[in-house]
Amino acid sequence: MSLFLRNMGLLVVATLLGAVIGLERERQGKSAGLRTHSLVCLGSALITMVGIHGFGPYGGGLRDPARVAAQIVSGIGFLGAGTIMHEGLTIKGLTTAASLWTTAGIGLAAGTGLVWPAIGATVLVEFVLVFLNRLEERYFPHKDVVLRVTAIDRPGLLGEIATIVGELRMNIVASDINLERGESMVRIEIVMGHSMAVAGNRTTHADLLQRVLALSGVLRAEVDNW
C-alpha cells in the first residue's frame, strides 16, 4: 500500500472515530457535537502526520515529530475552554471539553498508525459518556438542582418562588438576581439542595416548574441538575 493511501485511510478512520463520539454529544444537545469532534480528530491526525512526514527535507536530520504533536495537546485546551459556559451560579460543558481533549488524543493515535488503540479508546469514551452517565443518574443523583426564572419584575416575586421551593422540601443554597431591559425584566437563578430521594424525582421537578410558571409575570422557567 502506498504511503498516500495509508495516510488517507488513517485520516478517514480518525474522522469516523471523532464522529462516533460527536454523535453522542450531538444527541445530548451539546455545543460541540458531531462536526466539531470529527474535525478535532481529523485535524489532530493530520497535524501528527505533518510532524512525522512533512519536514523531512527541511529538518537537517534534527526533526522531532513529538514537538508538533505536543502542540495539539495544549492547543485543544483553547477549544475546550470555549465549550465551558459560566451561566449565573452554574458551570456547564466540562464533560464536553474533556471529550474534545480525549478526541484529540484519539486523532494523535490514528495519525501515528495506532488504529486499534484509537478504536479501543473510542469505545471507552462511549462507555464513559453513555453507560456511566446512566449509572450516575440512577445511583448517584445530583443533590443540587438549579431553577432559572425569567419574569417581569414585581414586588414579592422572589418570596413567592421561595415559598414554592419550601413546600416541596427543598432548601435554597444560593441565589442570583439580575435586572434586564431597563430593569423591567428580572432573571432569577436559585440553587436548591435537598434529600437524595427528591433530587432524582422528575415529578417533583415538573411540579416545581408548573407552579412557578403559574405565578404572575413569569415568562420562562427551567430546572437543571448541577
Task: Describe the model.
- The protein has helices at residues 3-27, 34-53, 65-83, 94-111, 115-139, 157-167, 196-199, 202-213; strands spanning 85-87, 90-92, 144-152, 171-180, 185-193, 218-225.
- With 226 residues, the chain is α+β, with helices and mostly antiparallel strands.
- It has two domains: 3-139, no CATH class; 144-225, Alpha-Beta Plaits, CATH 3.30.70.
- The strands form two sheets. It has a four-stranded antiparallel β-sheet with strand order 4-5-3-6, covered by helices on one side. Strands 1-2 form a two-stranded antiparallel sheet.
- Strand 1 and strand 2 form a beta hairpin.
- Helix 1 (3-27) packs antiparallel against helix 2, helix 1 (3-27) packs antiparallel against helix 4 (94-111) and helix 2 packs antiparallel against helix 3.
- The longest helix is centred in the N-terminal third of the chain and has 25 residues, at 3-27.
- The mean pLDDT is 82.
Given the C-alpha coordinates, what overall shape results? Answer: elongated
N- and C-termini, Cα separation: 51 Å
Instruction: Indicate the radius of gyration in whole angstroms.
Output: 24 Å
Give a quick account of the main beta sheet: strands, pairing sense, barrel closure. 4 strands, antiparallel
As residue ranges, the low-confidence spans are: none
Q: Percent range for helical residues?
A: 55-70%
Number of strands: 6
Residue fraction in strands: 15-25%
